[in-house]
Design goal:
Radius of gyration: 23 Å
Structural class: mainly alpha
Number of helices: 7
Distance between the termini: 29 Å
Number of strands: 2
Shape: elongated
Strand content: 5-15%
């Protein structure tokens, strides 16, 4: 089973081929670039799909001169990516602060399926935001925790969600569903603890 964090090796090689061709030939327009890449590395539709993904990820930018498209590898990609990670992590953090407060008020009115769905969504987003702050800490200064307050608040929000789950009248249904959906699988080792 492939993790969401493992890149698809074929896609990675194809993206690399596109980036390298753009870097080697910065003055090639769209059709000339296609001729250099297709069919040597991939099909035309695959090229167009990957090109669009690279543009969406801001790895490659596109400019139009006359009626021709030209591509360029984004300069300072690492710095810009770090700024984007930081901005999006802070935006998500603020959103989650609001959502966790709101779920306490709306919680009792939801049915079991809605509760499970909302908890899964919130826990995944909290863990993703925690990962964002951890990455920022690691990149900016691996010897210090720069986002200590944010890490602690995320822990508190996770704790609040788990308290709501464990105190729910349907906790025996909700709790195992949540744990399995966020990636914890205790089935293999559960019998050993008895």
């Amino acid at each position: 089973m492939m993790s969401q964090f493992e890149p698809n090796k074929i896609t990675f090689r194809r993206e690399k081929a596109i980036i390298e061709e753009i870097q080697k030939n910065p003055n090639l327009h769209h059709n000339a670039l296609i001729k250099r890449i297709v069919p040597k590395y991939m099909a035309k539709t695959t090229f167009e799909k990957l090109r669009d993904q690279l543009i969406e990820k801001n790895v490659v930018s596109c400019s139009i001169k006359g009626n021709r498209k030209f591509y360029k590898v984004t300069t300072d990609y690492q710095k810009r990516s770090l700024q984007l990670i930081e901005r999006m992590t802070h935006i998500n953090f603020q959103y989650l602060q609001h959502e966790v407060k709101r779920i306490r008020n709306d919680y009792q009115r939801k049915d079991v399926n809605e509760k499970i769905s909302k908890y899964i969504q919130l826990l995944r987003e909290l863990l993703q935001t925690e990962n964002g702050f951890t990455i920022l800490d690691s990149i900016k200064n691996s010897k210090k925790t720069l986002y200590k307050d944010e890490h602690l608040e995320i822990q508190e929000m996770i704790s609040n969600i788990f308290q709501l789950m464990t105190n729910d009248k349907d906790a025996e249904i909700i709790f195992p569903s949540i744990l399995s959906c966020i990636g914890f699988d205790f089935t293999r080792n559960f019998e050993q603890l008895k």
